[in-house]
Fold this protein.
Amino acid sequence: MERRLAAIVCADVAGYSRMMGADEAGTHATFKAHRTAIYPIILNHGGRLVKNTGDGFLLEFPSIVGAIEAAVAMQMVMAERNEHLPADRLMQFRMGIHMGDVMADEDEVFGDDVNIAVRLESVAEPGGIAVSGKACHEAGKRLSVTLVDAGPHRFKNIEEPIHVWTWQPAGSDTSSIAPKASTETSVTNLPAQYRTAIVGVLPFANLSESADEYFSDGLTEDLIHALSLQSFYRVLSRNATFSFKGKNVSTRLIAREIDATYLIQGSVRRAATKIRVTAELIAPETGEQLWTGRLDRDIGDLFAMQDELTTSLSAAIAAEIYRAEASAPPRSSSNDITAWDRFLKGLSYYYLHTKADYETSISLFKEAIALDPTLSIARAYLATIQMQGMQFGWIKSTRELWESAMSLAESSVRLDPRSSFAFQILAFLHAVEGHYEAAMDAAKRAVGLNPYDMGARGVLGFCHLTSGEHRQAIELFTMAAQQGNNDPRYQWAAVNAFSHYLLGQYDASLSWAREELYVNPNHLQALAIRAAALAQLGRTAEAANAAEVLLSNYPTLTVERYLRNFHWKMPADIAHYRDGLVKAGIPFSRLTLVESSPKLAADS
């Protein structure tokens, strides 16, 4: 059991029980969608999720200023998402904030100061925040918002009255960045015989009383266009699916008539100035629902909103088709092993995400390339998995391996010059090597080829990171994490940790590093940035422990050797990172490593 000073944020949804009674499944889905949207805000302010509470959550922050500013940012986002909704569909958080001494046991926190935050939440207005006088006094003039004195309050089981300060949103000044649709249709060069999955997008049903057919049809057409920019599968044209509009025909019969492997269907409902879109991806032969989602948006700028909906839907659906295809049994009746068979088999192991499975994936991707040297997508994935294997500590990093990855990325682009994914890998490798202009050019090509692909926008963020433009990088990483956070090709948490560190936002850097380490406990970059951030915060003992964990995974690592592979444009960024690593106790050079270890000295 550990005791520490912390800021606690407690949140719940006003009227949640009533909403669950009226629409249990819909309320739960909406709550999860809101929680996903605000989660990056928590991490950006250095917070961590202690636990979900059914209709809310409990958060811990190292800084009271960070806690209050995160709560305000979350409420502003929620105000924007709720704007113009009918009263019975509003989902508003009430938040209570306090700071004090808490007891920490594993990932849980306990104590009277936690209970006070819970009690404060009960007096907050829906959409508002209640802050204890102690927390308000500690934050002082460092806050960018104004709190209103609400006087002392007495709470059950709290002996002394608590002075309360409150905040309510006067309006929303946040804005979302929605990628604009490309005016050109991109047709990929991946040979048709490899794109064995055929996707049909059925016309989205208009469930509104008003005549909004133009919107539901437009959204369907945009989704067809967005999905067609992926080279992995074939997407049927509008003419193939719109003939079924308004007809009561089973999806199985539709799929057989148009020869579709997967069908996407959905609906659009409008209420006042709000649009609700539901969609599902199904395997029609079995009737299995592979994915379902629901999105609520303000109409506002109609075309910008339609672009944002298309982006969210295509990002989620494309990733699920990849997963489904990777686990699907071979469809070919031939006993001959093909390059595509090997690639899909490799992809199935890739999604299992363990060291042994990565090694198997590499072998299978190499087999696919040997069987068909022109298979661009196999080269792009092999380059990706080689880079990730090095980052996770599963493959030894060598110059030969980096050169192999670069060669694979370059050949992937040559073989399929309209593949956004191939340009993403090329951009990432150029950025790592310090080829800043080439990296930015490739990243912009990736975004231009598929403006709906969040991976492309995140890689563009990585190019900004290596160029020293960290605020632009964070904006793009956060967008990618919000809309494409289930794709294992990307680790937005790790790169977000770097940009926050280089801006001196060490608590946020720790939050993102922690997020990466939940998924990949041996991630070299996340382990290193965690140690450096802790050292910069003056948390010496924790930094030393983090350094020990890093060195136990990478025994020969030194600051000098590690930073040799960093080619950031700004020398000050390298110096800043070096300073944190040294402060954490990472040996600077091989000489200091040997000197600090009698065994190594003897072995030398």
Summary: The chain has 25 helices and 14 strands. Residues 2-167 form a domain with the Alpha-Beta Plaits fold (CATH 3.30.70.1230). The longest strand covers residues 93-105. The mean pLDDT is 84.
